[in-house]
Amino acid sequence: MVQQIVFVTGNANKLKEVKMLLAPEVGQEARFELINTDIDLDEVQSSSLEEIARHKVAQAKTVLPEGTAVFVEDTALCFEGYNGLPGAYVKWFLKKVGPEGLVRMLEGFENKGAEAVTTVAYSDAEGEIHIFQGKTSGKIVSPRGSRDFGWDCIFEPVECANKTYAEMEKADKNKISQRSRAFALLQKHLHNDQ
């Protein structure tokens, strides 16, 4: 029987991307079924991405039936010029000032470097929590490309110079993104665990 794993998200774009990232290789049998639920989880105030993700998955476990395998994902955008800010708070900055406002934050800085970080907290059926993290270096640029996925239009990864995430094909983005790196670690764990 294929195990169900719950992804706590209400973001359809994230769900679609994560399903792509965790899909079995062509010809491989699926070892788990990914389902999602939208639970309103507390946003703890911390600069520690691991602490935020660990808190969220622990809270999700209290809402879901006992023995449910579940994971949460938290993504941060860390500006070098601000010593890592906005970091975990980027969602709130984006909501208030939009992509242009994030770019304006760095107007007085020569250093436009940034790091995108995704932290996945997975709680297995026994309740043990595992943390996986992926990182991608890049820089902040004026918005280019689609604006339908957060700050993708202002993040230009080092590994794909001259294109923002928003300008890249999904398959190309998924080869280098911080999310794909974090979920590759989760997928490896899931396949070794079963």
TrEMBL record:
Cofactor or coenzyme needed: Mg(2+); Mn(2+)
Positions bound to ITP: 9-14, 56, 74-75, 149-152, 173
Enzyme class at the top of the EC tree: hydrolase
Source organism per UniProt: Lachancea dasiensis
NCBIfam families listed in its UniProt record: RdgB/HAM1 family non-canonical purine NTP pyrophosphatase
Catalysed reactions, as listed in the record: dITP + H2O = dIMP + diphosphate + H(+); XTP + H2O = XMP + diphosphate + H(+); ITP + H2O = IMP + diphosphate + H(+)
Keywords, sorted A to Z: Cytoplasm, Hydrolase, Magnesium, Manganese, Metal-binding, Nucleotide metabolism, Nucleotide-binding, Nucleus
Protein's UniProt name: Inosine triphosphate pyrophosphatase
Location (main, coarse): cytoplasm
EC numbers on record: 3.6.1.66
Gene Ontology MF term list: dATP diphosphatase activity; dCTP diphosphatase activity; dGTP diphosphatase activity; dITP diphosphatase activity; dTTP diphosphatase activity; dUTP diphosphatase activity; GTP diphosphatase activity; ITP diphosphatase activity
Residues reported to bind Mg(2+): 43, 74
Gene Ontology CC terms: cytoplasm; nucleus
Top-level taxonomic group: Eukaryota
Function: Pyrophosphatase that hydrolyzes non-canonical purine nucleotides such as inosine triphosphate (ITP), deoxyinosine triphosphate (dITP) or xanthosine 5'-triphosphate (XTP) to their respective monophosphate derivatives. The enzyme does not distinguish between the deoxy- and ribose forms. Probably excludes non-canonical purines from RNA and DNA precursor pools, thus preventing their incorporation into RNA and DNA and avoiding chromosomal lesions.
Co-factor binding comment: Binds 1 divalent metal cation per subunit; can use either Mg(2+) or Mn(2+).
Subunit structure: Homodimer.
Family statement: Belongs to the HAM1 NTPase family.
GO biological-process terms attached to the record: nucleotide metabolic process; purine deoxyribonucleoside triphosphate catabolic process; pyrimidine deoxyribonucleoside triphosphate catabolic process
Compartmental location: Cytoplasm; Nucleus
